[in-house]
């Protein structure tokens, strides 16, 4: 079975651990997806960051946005979502914390709870 190639977008400054957790789940034997790339640290963005992000998103079959309290305002995430939309790459949003009721990222589709059944269904 071929695994779906996923680009993980997250608010790097506030929720980097969400990226680490989803990468861990991608490594499980029964995972239907693999993480091919993820958000880059944007505090000191390189001049070619948009070009590199676009290339990474184009290599992916889906963009997975890991949503935390401030993700809907994170400039890097907003740019990655815009790039995915421009490239026609589907986007899925997952709430990153069990106790979270956070705003969705604009233009990134419906928000889903983070559980293994949802991941398997959405990312297979």
Automatic annotation (TrEMBL):
InterPro entries: ThsB__TIR-like_domain, ThsB_TIR-like_sf
Descriptive protein name: Thoeris protein ThsB TIR-like domain-containing protein
Every Thoeris protein ThsB TIR-like domain range: 8-94
Family matches, as Gene3D superfamilies: Hypothetical protein MTH538 (3.40.50.9200)
């Amino acid at each position: 079975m071929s695994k779906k190639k996923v680009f993980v977008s997250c608010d790097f400054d506030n929720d980097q651990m969400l990226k680490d957790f989803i990468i861990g789940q991608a490594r499980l034997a029964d995972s239907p997806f693999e993480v091919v790339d993820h958000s880059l640290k944007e505090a000191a963005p390189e001049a070619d960051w948009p070009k590199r992000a676009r290339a990474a998103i184009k290599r992916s079959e889906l963009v997975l946005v890991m949503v935390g309290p401030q993700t809907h305002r994170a400039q890097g995430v907003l740019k990655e979502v815009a790039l995915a939309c421009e490239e026609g790459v589907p986007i899925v949003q997952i709430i990153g914390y069990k106790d979270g009721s956070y705003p969705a990222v604009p233009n990134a589709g419906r928000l889903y709870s983070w559980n293994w059944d949802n991941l398997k269904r959405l990312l297979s």
